[in-house]
Amino acid sequence: MKPIRYTPEMIDEYTRDGYWTDETFYDFYDRNAREFGDREALVDSKYRLTWSQAKRLVDGIAQNLGPDGHPPRTPGSSSSRPTASTASWPGSPAKGPG
Prior knowledge:
It contains 3 helices and 2 strands. With 98 residues, the chain is mainly alpha-helical. It is extended. The relative contact order is 0.11.
């Protein structure tokens, strides 16, 4: 996949027209959880999440990140792969979607 190179003019246009804002993904989830909490936000073949559920999941994942923004390593492991999050996947007794 080839990356898109945005020119300063494109950035100015997208910002001016409101397509790009200073809002982060977290801001988006937070606002939508407050305004549309019980409305469906994410759907796949296995799960259906409302905005409130999605925000709780995102918050749970964030709480388990280290100060550097990465998941902690499993003690004694040299693997750089993330450990299982303690965030509960709504509607499932298992942790995480997998």
